[in-house]
């Protein structure tokens, strides 16, 4: 069996089926497109339903793919078994009414056992089939499987109810009794049983029947093939690892986690190994999921991501890792997968930032949560009890952000269970207490019962004030209400009777700033502001010196930070309306982020913006800025605002009976509680820096304003000046013309070069074709020529064909670290059993490469030019022994 990397195995699979006439279907997004039945794409065939149900006819009925998938139904088994993952890749080959059993079975055997491909020992392969499917059993035997290695299993019938169905055949690899976790005489110790010895690597479904609503099975008019082979399992077999996690798909991640831990090493402690595996698996899953546009939230896909991040953080704690760390693994995941999935590396900054923010939210209270949970567990063990009560489980959820599933899983590891009914009862009590505060609770990771009980009135006065005097009403430290706090660098949460600090909401980040005492000494640094359950702005601070309740303090926001945020927030309103003007009235906001340094705006669209549209958007927004339009705000009953003002609701926001309306003349009118400029002229300048896709049907615009926009344009201008210097152009206005001229000249040179090559090829052909050998009754020409690309070889092959110089032509060319081969065979050569595609596969290994083609023409590329002479000699030997 060959020694191959995971990327080589993936590509080899695709190359194999491409050589069998299959079209390679690119991996689709993990977020299903127009398929409400799926939360995630969970199989290779999931994205091909349109072909199998007949709603879309594929251009080629033969399809192959490597599809990224997510399944979370067995999430609690991840790390505890050799093979469970939430993210995995499924290799598949599919026939839509084309080939069937007699083709697919030999192909599967060829791919797995041929020395040209994987090169497995056929004696190690075992097959399961449906008992009544005698055709499949015969085909496996004819292909070369030992009849004793074929098992008839009733479960080998793929049927999910009404619709296509049929028998299936699974291929298992025997790793030997040393891998088995069962005795040899155990009833489950057989291929297909629950054991670790025989590893399923491939499943072939023969979709030949229709399951009717009546329950009857009838033959399908068009029989289909649907196969699936887990890449991770195949890699573990080829790389000879104990589990999937020791392969090159996971070990770089695990090794990096080792370096982040407190000295733990993988494969030395069973409990630690489980944590290493969970982290490695979840790092892959969330990196790909976020990259495909799914973001952490409290429901649906977002909840899956949030849960996986929290599971990873918890297991990081078990390995002695404090603080956010999962985001640091994103570049590792990207590097492992970039040969076929470059999107993770391309988006790694955004993915890492998204994960880091989520980790920070959870980490703020994680230590205290784990302390509570471990305390509960210790108390139960002392009392010899086995059930964590519902109130404790709920407190972990409500105060520390532990989903119930995590508590159940953590308890299970300690041999305990959880009173889930009691948890649900406490959840209902909380809902009654919180009433309408549920939305705020979910928007903030640090909400807890203590905060919910605080009813102190607090007024936000930051629309008109940057600095005020306010009385400190409540101090919360470690989830307890205290009268004072004085420990330097300690974190605390503060509520004042009024505040100028804006709490994060509607995409706008929170204000930052400082708090001073009566003597103007700084006593705290405000690093974040969120909404408490009862609506107050709660300030998360780093304590510098003592603070006491009922004392008066000076609250100062960072004015420069606020000003830049205000500029960007008003710009998002202008951009929102401009998008409706340019793209269409149905365009709506799908999310936003307003930071001091930039703004991000997501909107629904299935098509990217073209350069003309981007330019038009910039023109509209800047015209509104330069028109110096007053920005007015008004608080109105919501129905009046809708009718009288025609205000537009921002994405995903919930509104009360009274709303704040922000108007920019008669151009933009929106509900918004954020901070804005007083006049559009304050924004200064608006520039779009990028436009990209973030998920199915969602596009993203990144933009800058004011000083940042000036710096961005200045950087662009400096690059243009440097380009002008390199092009030897005196005036910037001439750069475009000069670039166009250079492109035209380059094209002409390329054409001239190609024409010269044609002439040289014609001249070379005489000497290339002058030596004809007679080998086994065939005229054969072999030669290594001086050429730096494949086109010259193909031109010579065409000339050879037109002049009928011999029966077989084998040409090679090398340049630097690249080698190329071309094989052509005429009809007489093919009749004698020589096929160009087969021959080139055999000789390409001498140049450390691969290739393929038709019986009459084939080509290959490699990285060992020194092997060309051996390749040509091997070709002659093969023809001689044919």
Automatic annotation (TrEMBL):
Cofactor note: Binds 1 zinc ion per subunit.
Gene Ontology CC terms: cytosol
EC nos: 6.1.1.7
Cofactor(s), names only, from the UniProt record: Zn(2+)
Gene3D superfamilies found in the cross-reference section: 2.40.30.130, 3.10.310.40, 3.30.54.20, 6.10.250.550, Bira Bifunctional Protein, Domain 2 (3.30.930.10), Threonyl-trna Synthetase, Chain A, domain 2 (3.30.980.10)
GO molecular function: alanine-tRNA ligase activity; aminoacyl-tRNA deacylase activity; ATP binding; catalytic activity, acting on a protein; transferase activity; tRNA binding; zinc ion binding
Coiled-coil features, chain-numbered ranges: 732-759
Domain notes: Consists of three domains; the N-terminal catalytic domain, the editing domain and the C-terminal C-Ala domain. The editing domain removes incorrectly charged amino acids, while the C-Ala domain, along with tRNA(Ala), serves as a bridge to cooperatively bring together the editing and aminoacylation centers thus stimulating deacylation of misacylated tRNAs.
UniProt protein name: Alanine--tRNA ligase
Originating organism: Companilactobacillus ginsenosidimutans
Gene that this sequence comes from: alaS
């Amino acid at each position: 069996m060959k020694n191959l990397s995971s990327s080589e195995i993936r590509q080899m699979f695709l190359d194999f089926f491409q050589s069998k006439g299959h079209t390679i279907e690119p991996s689709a997004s993990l977020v299903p497109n127009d398929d409400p039945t799926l939360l995630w794409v969970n199989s290779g065939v999931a994205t091909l339903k349109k072909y199998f149900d007949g709603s879309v006819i594929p251009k080629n009925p033969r399809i192959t793919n490597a599809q990224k998938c997510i399944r979370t139904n067995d999430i609690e088994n991840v790390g505890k078994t050799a093979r469970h993952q939430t993210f995995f890749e499924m290799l598949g080959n599919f026939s839509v009414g084309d080939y069937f059993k007699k083709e697919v079975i030999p192909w599967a055997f060829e791919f797995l056992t041929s020395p040209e491909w994987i090169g497995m020992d056929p004696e190690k392969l075992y097959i399961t089939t449906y008992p009544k499917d005698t055709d499949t059993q015969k085909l496996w035997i004819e292909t070369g499987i030992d009849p004793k290695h074929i098992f008839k299993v009733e479960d080998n019938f793929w049927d999910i109810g009404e619709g296509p169905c049929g028998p299936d055949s699974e291929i298992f690899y025997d790793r030997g009794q040393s891998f088995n976790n069962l005795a040899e005489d155990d009833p489950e110790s057989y291929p297909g049983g629950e054991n670790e010895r025989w590893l399923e690597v491939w499943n072939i479904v023969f979709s030949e029947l229709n399951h009717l609503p009546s329950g009857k099975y009838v033959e399908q008019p068009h029989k289909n093939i649907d196969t699936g082979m887990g890449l991770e399992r195949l890699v573990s077999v080829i790389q000879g690892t104990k589990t999937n996690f020791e392969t090159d798909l996971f070990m770089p991640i695990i090794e990096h986690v080792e370096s982040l831990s407190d000295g733990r090493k993988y494969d030395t402690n069973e409990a630690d190994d489980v944590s290493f595996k969970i982290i490695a698996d979840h790092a892959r899953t969330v990196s790909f999921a976020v990259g495909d546009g799914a973001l952490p939230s409290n429901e649906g896909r977002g909840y899956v991501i949030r849960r996986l991040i929290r599971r990873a953080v918890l297991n990081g704690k078990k390995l002695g890792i404090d603080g956010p760390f999962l985001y640091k693994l994103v570049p590792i995941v990207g590097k492992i997968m970039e040969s076929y999935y470059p999107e993770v590396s391309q988006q790694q900054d955004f993915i890492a930032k998204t994960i880091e923010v989520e980790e920070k939210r959870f980490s703020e209270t994680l230590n205290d949560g784990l302390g509570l949970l471990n305390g509960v567990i210790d108390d139960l063990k002392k009392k010899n009890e086995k059930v964590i009560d519902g109130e404790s489980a709920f407190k972990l959820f409500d105060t520390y952000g532990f989903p119930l599933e995590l508590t159940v899983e953590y308890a299970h590891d300690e041999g305990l269970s959880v009173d889930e009914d009691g948890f649900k009862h406490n959840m209902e009590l909380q809902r009654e207490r919180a009433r309408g505060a549920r939305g705020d609770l979910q928007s903030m990771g640090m909400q807890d019962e203590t905060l919910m009980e605080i009813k102190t009135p607090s007024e936000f006065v930051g629309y008109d004030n940057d600095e005020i005097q306010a009385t400190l009403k409540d101090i919360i430290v470690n989830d307890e209400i205290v009268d004072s706090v004085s420990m330097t660098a300690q974190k605390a949460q503060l509520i004042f009777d009024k505040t100028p600090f804006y709490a994060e909401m509607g995409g706008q980040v929170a204000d930052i700033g400082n708090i001073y005492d009566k003597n103007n000494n700084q006593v705290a640094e405000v690093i974040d502001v969120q909404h408490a359950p009862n609506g107050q702005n709660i300030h998360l601070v780093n304590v510098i010196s003592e603070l006491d309740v009922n004392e008066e303090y000076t609250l100062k926001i960072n004015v420069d930070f606020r000003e830049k945020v205000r500029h960007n927030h008003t710009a998002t309103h202008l951009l929102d309306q401009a998008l409706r003007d340019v793209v269409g009235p149905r365009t709506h906001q799908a999310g936003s982020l307003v930071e001091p340094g930039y703004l991000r705006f997501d909107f629904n669209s299935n098509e990217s913006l073209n350069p003309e549209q981007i330019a038009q958007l910039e023109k509209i927004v800047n015209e509104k800025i330069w028109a110096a339009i007053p920005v007015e705000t008004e608080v109105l009953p919501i129905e009046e605002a809708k009718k009288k003002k025609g205000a537009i609701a921002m994405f995903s926001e919930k509104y009360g009976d009274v709303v704040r309306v922000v108007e920019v003349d008669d151009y933009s009118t929106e509900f918004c509680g954020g901070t804005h400029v007083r006049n559009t002229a304050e924004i200064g300048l608006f520039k779009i820096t990028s436009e990209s896709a973030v998920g199915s049907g969602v596009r993203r615009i990144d933009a800058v304003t004011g000083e940042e926009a000036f710096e961005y344009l200045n950087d662009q201008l400096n690059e243009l000046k440097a380009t002008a210097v390199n092009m030897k152009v005196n005036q910037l206005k001439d750069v475009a013309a000069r670039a166009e001229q250079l492109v035209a000249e380059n094209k002409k040179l390329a054409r001239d070069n190609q024409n010269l090559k044609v002439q040289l090829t014609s001249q070379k052909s005489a000497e290339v074709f002058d030596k004809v050998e007679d080998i086994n009754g065939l005229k054969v020409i072999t030669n290594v020529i001086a050429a730096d690309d494949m086109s010259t070889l193909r031109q010579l092959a065409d000339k050879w064909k037109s002049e009928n110089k011999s029966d077989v032509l084998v040409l090679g060319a090398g340049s630097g670290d690249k080698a190329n081969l071309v094989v052509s065979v005429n009809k007489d050569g093919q009749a004698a059993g020589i096929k160009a595609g087969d021959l080139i596969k055999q000789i390409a290994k001498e140049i450390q490469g691969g290739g393929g083609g038709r019986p009459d023409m084939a080509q290959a590329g490699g990285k060992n030019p020194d092997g060309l002479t051996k390749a040509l000699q091997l070709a002659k030997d093969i023809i001689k022994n044919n």
